[in-house]
Design brief:
Helix content is about 20%, strand content about 30%. The protein is α+β, with helices and mostly antiparallel strands and about 300 residues long. It folds into two domains: about 1-40, no CATH class; about 40-295, mRNA triphosphatase Cet1-like (mRNA Triphosphatase Cet1, Chain A). The longest helix has 18 residues, at about 110-125. Belongs to the fungal TPase family.
Length: about 300
């Protein structure tokens, strides 16, 4: 069977027992399909294809970490400013550049508190022996991002210098380059989401003054290969402008090296099946976690 039709190992058939009675009212065990396997989820495969294509076609002259993240927010029509309304009933991937929209990741204070409570409860529950998954980790970070223009005035991306708020020490200095976005509209939910692939290129500390700053108070929850970040951002457009308070929620694949290693083995006929399908399994878990975050959004997003 071609690779695109082959499910991960745990998706194999649950077969009925030969000769099992079919006259009763109880449903007997069913096979996953007439082929005994579960067809690949096209939704997850589309996201996996997008991420994989964007990774392997990234600019070869730029060295840096590849970042894959999903942000929770709202898709808004640019003309009206209202939340997008499409004639679909369920979660849908929007074809890039087909609709004039913008993605807004800022949530209300109420939503921030809601997610903080839910994630803290999950963190506590995950420490119990009866929890069905691995325990969550937790870190509270306070950093300040300062943004500087690059030498090229036409560059949209700015240089970001991140400092520990308490010590003032530089944590990182880099230029974040957006490689691609995929928007997901969720009509049954209070929020939508966006998958982004970025390249984080390390650079030297810039000379001159910062154009603006973002102070981040971040609650970071880690689970297996993922990091869920709930962040309160105090943004200042200029030294004399009033600060704006923002709240954001995102999930990120935690290990760029693992992401690239699994992407390199995807579909390789010479690789074992587990290595060949590892990238799709990583994206599947990433998508499932993003979906759970979106489905736990309460009403009154913004």
């Amino acid at each position: 069977m071609p690779r695109s039709e082959s499910p991960p190992p745990h998706k194999r058939a649950r077969q009925s027992t030969p000769g099992e009675s079919r006259n009763g009212t109880s449903l007997p065990p069913l096979s996953l399909s007439i082929l005994g396997v579960e067809p690949l989820d096209e939704f997850i495969k589309e996201i996996a294809d997008f991420v994989h294509y964007t990774i392997v076609n990234r600019p070869p002259d730029l060295q840096g970490n590849v970042e894959v993240e999903a942000k929770v927010g709202l898709l808004r029509d640019r003309a009206s400013g209202q939340r997008l309304m499409l004639p679909v009933l369920v979660e849908t991937i929007i074809a890039p550049d087909r609709i004039d929209l913008r993605f807004e990741s800022n949530m209300s204070v109420h939503q921030h508190k809601h997610f903080n409570t839910r994630l803290n409860e999950l963190k506590m529950s995950s420490a119990q022996p009866s929890f069905p998954s691995t325990p969550l980790g937790y870190t509270h970070l306070r950093v300040v991002d300062s943004f500087y223009p690059t030498d090229n005035p036409h560059d949209k991306e700015k240089i970001r210098v991140t400092r520990d708020e308490k010590t003032g020490n530089v944590v990182e200095c880099m230029r974040k380059i957006r490689l691609g976005d995929l928007n997901i509209y969720s009509p049954k939910r209070a929020a939508d989401w966006r998958v982004s692939v970025n390249l984080e290129v390390p650079v030297s500390h810039p000379i001159g003054s910062a154009t603006h700053t973002r102070r981040k108070d971040r609650l970071s929850y880690t689970h297996e290969e993922f990091s869920i970040d709930l962040t309160q951002v105090t943004a200042s457009a200029s030294p004399n402008s009033p600060a704006e308070l923002l709240h954001e929620l995102e999930i990120e694949i935690a290990r760029p090296a693992l992401l690239l290693a699994t992407a390199a083995k995807r579909g390789d006929p010479n690789a074992p099946e587990l290595e060949r399908s590892a990238f799709d399994e990583l994206i599947r878990a990433f998508v499932n976690n993003a979906r759970i975050l979106v489905r736990n959004a309460s009403e009154g997003w913004q």
